[in-house]
Amino acid sequence: MEDWSKVMEERATRRDVPMKPQVIAHELGQRLSDHAIVSCDSGTIATWWARHIPVKAGQMHSISGNLASMANGLPYTIAAQIAFPHRQCVAFVGDGGFSMLMAEFATAVKYKLPIKVVIVKNNTLGQINWEQMVFLGNPEFGVDLHPIDFAAIARACGGEGFTAEDAADCGRVVEEFLQVPGPAILQAVVDPLEPPLPAKVTADQALKFAESLLRGEPNRTQIALTTLSDKVREMV
Ligand SMILES: Cc1ncc(C[n+]2csc(CCOP(=O)(O)OP(=O)(O)O)c2C)c(N)n1
Question: For position 235, what pLDDT does the model report?
Answer without folding.
Answer: 67
